[in-house]
Automatic annotation (TrEMBL):
GO cellular component: cytosol
Name of this chain's protein: Shikimate kinase
Function of the protein: Catalyzes the specific phosphorylation of the 3-hydroxyl group of shikimic acid using ATP as a cosubstrate.
Subunit relationships: Monomer.
EC number: 2.7.1.71
Residues reported to bind ATP: 10-15, 120
Gene designation: aroK
Claim: Zinc is one of the keywords in the record: no
């Protein structure tokens, strides 16, 4: 059983993934934390030193490795869905959950999360507000393409999101 969380930055993939794994008694892996531990540098350091294309190569490689793994809950980074070959492999043997949030909610969570500084360097030269609108629009078709279940998280806390995922997995006969 492999449960994979996708969605834009700050929609709750990492927090929900940890709690879901605890509830299901499965190991949890966060793709960004995996990359950071492997390289020994924060995402912000990686991007400042070598640029976004280099981070995307590391992400693609890590995603491919996760395609080979089973029995885990996996939280991806917001941009992981751009690696379509690796995502197609993951899609073949996983339940994929798309966590959604409205742009205003994403902005608020991004600004309040202490990890934004080291895990979420700017993706564009735009203002944060413009960046969220623009990158969300680009990526939504990809999130849609891979999702088995879509959850609107604006008015739900982490436990409520986890409960919805567990209910879906039960109904689908996955657990
Ligand atoms: N459902 C939620 N309601 C309120 N805040 C949330 C929710 N999910 C996540 N957060 C908060 O948003 C921030 C980003 O969450 P995180 O799990 O790191 O998201 P992601 O991994 O998708 O970027 C954190 O500060 C987290 O506590
Ligand atoms: O949206 C993106 O391109 C990114 C999202 C981040 O992960 P979260 O979605 O967990 O914030 C992290 O992978 C990196 O900063 C790139
Ligand atoms: Mg995350």
């Amino acid at each position: 059983m492999k449960i994979v969380l996708i969605g834009f930055r700050a929609t709750g993939k990492t927090s929900v993934g940890k709690e879901l794994a605890r509830r299901l008694g499965l190991p949890f892996l966060d793709l960004d934390e995996y990359i950071v531990n492997k390289v020994g540098k924060s995402i912000t350091e990686i991007v400042e030193e070598k640029g976004w294309p280099y981070f995307r190569e590391l992400e693609k490689e890590a995603l491919y490795e996760m395609g080979q793994r089973d029995n885990l809950v996996l939280a991806l980074g917001g941009g992981s869905v751009m690696h379509t070959d690796e995502m197609d492999l993951i899609k073949a043997n996983s339940s994929l959950i798309w966590l959604k949030a409205q742009p205003q909610v994403i902005l608020l969570r991004l600004e309040q999360d202490e990890k934004s500084c080291s895990f979420r360097p700017s993706l564009t030269n735009k203002s944060l507000e413009e960046e969220v609108a623009c990158i969300l629009a680009q990526r939504e078709p990809l999130y849609q393409r891979y999702a088995d279940l879509i959850i609107e998280t604006d008015h739900l806390n982490t436990e409520e999101v986890v409960a919805k995922i567990i209910e879906f997995l039960r109904q689908a006969g996955v657990i």
